[in-house]
């Protein structure tokens, strides 16, 4: 019996609809939520990501401003722009699209953003608040994963969650989200990574298995506990001469072999991916509420 396929597109649309309602309520209260996206250089993938975020803002009722800087810009040029946005009361969210050119230090740039406007959830202050359970802006991709699970009717509290990967973008914040109290968390959490010995002994114990390592089709059926919920965060290009584009997109999970074993699974594409932009919309409306001292809906 094959796993239930978790429809990330459908759930992401639900969240975007909620963000749209929140944006409308903010406007009614006299606050126009505003997200500024800063793009340095002309990387095609980054331009595409920024375009999808701007489009989502338009559909949600969030004002979006795109600032484009040349790849030759200095780090100080970018810092000056961030300082200006930090001090602009009409701006509620600041997102600097990564990666940045070699002459810029991503950590320093991230730390320059006002934590109250850090809709990526990467500022050390927000990372610290998340780790001790204080309400804050949290990274979009890991924040969307409990939504995918619980909105699919799967309980999380008390479950053993195994996260493969320890990046600052997904793995580490995912651990901190899952371990907190609440219906959409309250898990026993194990983190596995490149230093883990006998990885399979851990993954086979997982009620919820989250793969975020960037290795195509790394998780195979023999690594998965029957009936487990498998969340595939990876998106990788692999050569495929039979495809029109010469490649196909696959996740970190070998979907074909794992789907018959798992109880529920996210596809790639169409699983975790759509949730990232949806959660960005939620973060932007949340930042606007918090900045203006308005109660949560």
From TrEMBL:
<keyword id="KW-0028">Amino-acid biosynthesis</keyword>
<dbReference type="InterPro" id="IPR036291">
    <property type="entry name" value="NAD(P)-bd_dom_sf"/>
</dbReference>
<dbReference type="GO" id="GO:0004477">
    <property type="term" value="F:methenyltetrahydrofolate cyclohydrolase activity"/>
</dbReference>
<dbReference type="GO" id="GO:0006164">
    <property type="term" value="P:purine nucleotide biosynthetic process"/>
</dbReference>
<keyword id="KW-0511">Multifunctional enzyme</keyword>
<keyword id="KW-0560">Oxidoreductase</keyword>
<dbReference type="InterPro" id="IPR046346">
    <property type="entry name" value="Aminoacid_DH-like_N_sf"/>
</dbReference>
<dbReference type="InterPro" id="IPR020867">
    <property type="entry name" value="THF_DH/CycHdrlase_CS"/>
</dbReference>
<dbReference type="GO" id="GO:0035999">
    <property type="term" value="P:tetrahydrofolate interconversion"/>
</dbReference>
<comment type="subunit">
    <text>Homodimer.</text>
</comment>
<feature type="binding site">
    <location>
        <begin position="165"/>
        <end position="167"/>
    </location>
    <ligand>
        <name>NADP(+)</name>
    </ligand>
</feature>
<keyword id="KW-0658">Purine biosynthesis</keyword>
<feature type="binding site">
    <location>
        <position position="235"/>
    </location>
    <ligand>
        <name>NADP(+)</name>
    </ligand>
</feature>
<keyword id="KW-0554">One-carbon metabolism</keyword>
<feature type="domain" description="Tetrahydrofolate dehydrogenase/cyclohydrolase NAD(P)-binding">
    <location>
        <begin position="139"/>
        <end position="289"/>
    </location>
</feature>
<dbReference type="InterPro" id="IPR020631">
    <property type="entry name" value="THF_DH/CycHdrlase_NAD-bd_dom"/>
</dbReference>
<comment type="pathway">
    <text>One-carbon metabolism; tetrahydrofolate interconversion.</text>
</comment>
<keyword id="KW-0486">Methionine biosynthesis</keyword>
<keyword id="KW-0521">NADP</keyword>
<dbReference type="GO" id="GO:0009086">
    <property type="term" value="P:methionine biosynthetic process"/>
</dbReference>
<dbReference type="InterPro" id="IPR020630">
    <property type="entry name" value="THF_DH/CycHdrlase_cat_dom"/>
</dbReference>
<dbReference type="GO" id="GO:0005829">
    <property type="term" value="C:cytosol"/>
</dbReference>
<protein>
    <recommendedName>
        <fullName>Bifunctional protein FolD</fullName>
        <ecNumber>1.5.1.5</ecNumber>
        <ecNumber>3.5.4.9</ecNumber>
    </recommendedName>
</protein>
<keyword id="KW-0378">Hydrolase</keyword>
<dbReference type="InterPro" id="IPR000672">
    <property type="entry name" value="THF_DH/CycHdrlase"/>
</dbReference>
<dbReference type="GO" id="GO:0004488">
    <property type="term" value="F:methylenetetrahydrofolate dehydrogenase (NADP+) activity"/>
</dbReference>
<comment type="similarity">
    <text>Belongs to the tetrahydrofolate dehydrogenase/cyclohydrolase family.</text>
</comment>
<comment type="function">
    <text>Catalyzes the oxidation of 5,10-methylenetetrahydrofolate to 5,10-methenyltetrahydrofolate and then the hydrolysis of 5,10-methenyltetrahydrofolate to 10-formyltetrahydrofolate.</text>
</comment>
<dbReference type="Pfam" id="PF00763">
    <property type="entry name" value="THF_DHG_CYH"/>
</dbReference>
<keyword id="KW-0368">Histidine biosynthesis</keyword>
<dbReference type="GO" id="GO:0000105">
    <property type="term" value="P:L-histidine biosynthetic process"/>
</dbReference>
<dbReference type="Pfam" id="PF02882">
    <property type="entry name" value="THF_DHG_CYH_C"/>
</dbReference>
<feature type="domain" description="Tetrahydrofolate dehydrogenase/cyclohydrolase catalytic">
    <location>
        <begin position="6"/>
        <end position="120"/>
    </location>
</feature>
């Amino acid at each position: 019996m094959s796993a239930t396929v978790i429809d990330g597109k459908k759930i992401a649309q639900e969240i975007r609809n909620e963000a749209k309602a929140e944006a409308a309520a903010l406007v009614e209260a006299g606050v126009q939520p505003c997200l500024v996206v800063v793009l340095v250089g002309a990387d095609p993938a980054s331009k595409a990501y920024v375009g999808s975020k701007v489009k989502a803002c338009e559909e949600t009722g969030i004002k979006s401003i795109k600032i484009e800087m040349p790849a030759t810009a200095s780090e100080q040029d970018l810092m000056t722009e961030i300082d200006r946005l930090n001090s602009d009361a009409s701006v509620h969210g600041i997102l600097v699209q990564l990666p940045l050119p070699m002459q810029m230090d991503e950590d320093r740039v991230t730390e320059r953003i006002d934590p109250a406007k850090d809709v990526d959830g990467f500022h050390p202050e927000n990372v610290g608040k998340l780790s001790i359970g204080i309400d804050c802006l949290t990274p979009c991709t890991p924040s969307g994963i409990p939504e995918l699970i619980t909105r699919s009717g799967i309980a999380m509290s008390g479950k053993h969650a195994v996260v493969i990967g320890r990046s600052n973008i997904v793995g580490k914040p995912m651990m901190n989200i899952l371990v907190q109290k609440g219906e959409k968390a309250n898990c026993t959490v194990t983190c596995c990574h490149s230093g883990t010995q006998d990885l399979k002994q851990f993954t086979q114990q997982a009620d919820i298995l989250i793969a975020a390592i960037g290795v195509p089709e790394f998780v195979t059926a023999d690594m998965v506990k029957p009936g487990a919920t498998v969340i595939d965060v990876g998106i990788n290009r692999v050569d495929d001469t039979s495809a029109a584009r010469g490649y196909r997109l696959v996740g970190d999970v070998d979907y074909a072999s794992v789907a018959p074993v798992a109880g529920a699974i996210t596809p790639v594409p169409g699983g975790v991916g759509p949730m990232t932009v949806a959660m960005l919309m939620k973060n932007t409306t949340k930042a606007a509420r918090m900045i203006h001292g308005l109660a949560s809906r």
